[in-house]
Amino acid sequence: MVKEVKANTDAVEFTNFHQLQIDEARVYMNTAHPYWFDTSRPTQENSVLPFMLERNAANAPDNVCCRFADGTIWTHQETLNKTRQTAALFESFDIKRGDYVLAWLPNGPAVIRTWFALNYLGAIFVPLNLDYRGRMLEHVIRETKGTVMVAHPELIDRLADIETSLDTVLSVGGEDGIIGEKIKVSATHLEFDGEVSTPADMQPWDPQMVIFTSGTTGPSKGVLCPYLQQVSVGKGAYGYMTSDDCILIDLPMFHVGGVSPTMAAITNGATMALYDGFSTEKFWKRVKESNATTTSGLIGSMAAFLANAPVEQENVDNSLKIINGILNDQAIEVAKRYNFRLCSGFNMSELSVPLVITTEDRVAGSMGTPRTGCQCRVVDEHDYECVPGEVGELLVRMDQPWETCLGYLNRPDATATAWRNGWFHTGDLVRKDEDGNYFFVDRLKDAVRRRGENVSSLEVESEVLGYKSVAEAAVVGIPSELGDEDILVAVVAKPGEEIDGKSLIDYLIPLMPHYMVPRFVRVLDQLPKTPTNKLMKFAIRDEGITADTWDAEAAGIRLKKTRLS
Question: What phi, psi does 279 have (nearest 5°)?
């Protein structure tokens, strides 16, 4: 018998038992690992999105599939109908199987219709960060070589300043027009008089989407994900879901945190309630209006914001049962206060939740242990096993084919490097204890984790070096009081020049997403380097915030993410 998930006001418990719907038979997870994965050959009906939409419409046509912020509700049958209709619209623009189509849309009905319809045709969904602009926007479009984009009208003007491969932009709710000499803008509401009635014959190993990394070791790479991988991520992160659940999704669709819970909902025939971005003030209102039993997760500083918010007694009695997230003090406090459970694991865009945390062997600070169907190793720089307690790189391999990504789009060298010797190299430094618990130590890759986003220090440094007075720059992460890190940039001025922190930040704001703009600026006479002239970022990181460090937030500069109506 599966253990029932109930609220616990005395302590936070972590789920031992979950259940998944596989081939219409319930498979119960064992106590050793909370995420049990079926290793039999997958089918279209249980792993390929369009066929799961067909299945859900046939099995439960009148059950709610999607709830949106404006109160709109789609049943499973309506979701399938709109998918088929939008697929016919895209087909009229000559979108076909294998095409990479960019989607630059906020969470809402348009991005769901676009994603599902593209996959229905066998095309590949490429969602883009709403904060992209300038060279970063140009880079990700160039990586796909895509010619068609579906976009929110308020974003389209950014395309005028860059060189792209685009020739068609479908402006959802916008107007007809032209960008430059080449790009035709066509207004649409994604409606069409007709439909595509049969999905493309896609298989679990075929490409479904491209998720762009945050460029942790250089320019962002496109992670090419097959259908089975995203289904597996959904099982790994949200394996407790059944058709009776409603998942509140407030993480963006250009992030695994948005697409994975959507896949989990479709896989299990559950309901999704979609909102455009996390809001501390609106969180509990959204839970109540959707009757959500879970959410897309508490990542970054989300738990800290909820923990620091005033307690309203009416929110203590709520519909939430369990949430996936980082198991820090704030998340545990929120779970205790509002009577829901927590589960957690480690994942990357390239993988499908290789490490999970169980109740029995939970150890403070641990990333967890390998889930069923996954192998993990800790190795030295030559890929040889480290002894327990020794720090090395985390390597991962799955038993089931196609549960990891297909590689990096148009980057065979990067793909070969990441998968050398038959294992995926995560770039994360960890250690493993005698009992098999894994602990995060540091990053091999040059990145900062800020507000739930991985920020490439190299990309930030590249923009900083464009400022007229900067000769050298080094970006590091500084622990934040809200969890994750804040960005500090150490700069050296050109001879005869001076650098003012506010002027530098004002220069950077229009060039990059809000979460990449440094909070702290420190001006140095020289950057710390080794005798062989290699930069020692750890020295800057270890010194942290010094008396001569300029703070943008203290100066009244607080940047927010792009919000679209």
Answer: -140, 120
CB atoms closer than 10 angstroms to residue 375: 12
Give the model's pLDDT for residue 358: 57
Strands (E), 309-350: 322-324, 341-343, 345-346
Collapsing DSSP states into helix, strand and coil, what is residue 553?
coil
Same domain, 420 and 392: yes
Provide the domain limits for residue 525: 449-551
415 — phi, psi (to 5°)? -65, -45
Mean pLDDT of the chain: 87
Is pLDDT above 60 for 35?
A: no
Per-residue 3-state assignment (H helix, E strand, C coil) for 458-499 = HHHHHHHCCCCCEEEEEEEEEECCCCCEEEEEEEEECCCCCC
Query: Residues 99-107: what's their mean pLDDT?
Result: 98
Strand, helix or coil at 323? strand
Q: Indicate whether this model's pTM tops 0.70.
A: yes
Identify the pLDDT of residue 22.
26
Return the structure tokens found at 186.
């066509």
In a domain, 330, yes or no: no
- Predicted pLDDT at 539: 84
Question: pLDDT at residue 216 above 80?
Answer: no
Which residue in 28, 21, 84, 23 sits closest to 57, CA to CA? 84
Look at residue 120 and tell me if it is in a domain: yes
